[in-house]
Amino acid sequence: MASINEIGATAFVIAAIREAEAEQPEPLFHDPFAAWFSNDMARTAARGLDAVFPPSTTMVRFRTRYFDRFVERGVRAGARQVVLLGGGFDMRAHRLANADDAEDLFAENRVTFFEVDQKAVIEFKRGLLESRGLEQPPSLLANYLEVDLATELAERGLDPGAPTLIVWEGNTMYLPPESIMPFLNRLAEGIASFRIAFDYFSVDLVERDFEAADVQRLEGIEKAMRATFLTGFPDLAVFETEAPFAVAESGSFAELGHEFGLGAVVDGYPEEWRETLELYRYCALAKG
Ligand SMILES: C[S@@+](CC[C@H](N)C(=O)[O-])C[C@H]1O[C@@H](n2cnc3c(N)ncnc32)[C@H](O)[C@@H]1O
């Protein structure tokens, strides 16, 4: 773990939050593997998140359910390959295939998962899976901003001509703002037809000239995560004007709470918290 840098280390914190799902009165997902990647430091960080802004870990719960749904819907619509981009300790490749309520969607349709993350993160994950008798899916160990992602994935078995789902969860905020559009445009050149879903902050994180209370909450979250948020998207139109995408869906995670049967939790938050939560959103872009 010593060689995993501060961005990679955020993956442990997310695992610690998912580990706690089983104890929730109304679990939104089943991730029996999360505990493998959790540790005391990550649990302390997760508690720190809730201390600075109590809805923080709830939003990670909502986002996990959202990306599960994104994959499930995409597979129902015909996609047979899923890329977990900056996947960290995402165990969807194993847990969706084995979910009780998956209706054998994944088994019957033979969905292939691919994972992309930094070398140290995937080596750690692969080692842990091997020690428990599980196989790591085909993986690219690289900084995905620095490689030709479509070609690298094709070398690992991805068909660049077939419909593809890309889960880009918990990543955009850590990337340099100037890297985003060149990266997405390169990806769009290499893969014919895909949907990419991501979570994001809908503010300019460079200028940070938004509400003082929101800045304070965001900076508290950065401190608890021990990472800096570099990129936000105040306007999703950039993906349609500066890249060849259509915005297929977008909204706030707090709104999704209602769809997931936890509307009362969101409605119970003070109004100023609910206003801050409007800044944390999801988006799915479609190409081809
Ligand atoms: C907050 S974690 C989220 C992990 C996972 N997607 C989830 O939600 O559980 C961010 C992950 O993205 C990876 N990551 C961020 N930028 C990356 C890059 N440029 N290349 C490869 N991996 C990256 C980090 O190493 C880390 O594992």
User: Into which percentage range does the β-strand content fall?
Assistant: 5-15%
Oligomer category:
single chain
CATH superfamily: Vaccinia Virus protein VP39
Q: Count every helix, treating DSSP H or I runs of 4 or more residues as helices.
A: 14
Total domain units: 1
How confident is the prediction overall: mean pLDDT? 95
State the major sheet.
Answer: 7 strands, mixed
What characteristic shape results from the CA principal axes?
globular
SSE-based structural type = alpha/beta
CATH topology description:
Rossmann fold
Portion in helices: 40-55%
Strand order of the largest sheet: 3-2-1-4-5-7-6
Distance between the termini: 39 Å
**CATH architecture assignment name:** 3-Layer(aba) Sandwich
The CATH class label is Alpha Beta
From N to C, what is the helix and strand string?
HHHHEHHEHEHEHEHHEHHHE
- Gyration radius from CA atoms, angstroms: 18 Å
List cofactors, ions and other ligands: S-adenosylmethionine
Low-confidence stretches: none
Strand tally: 7
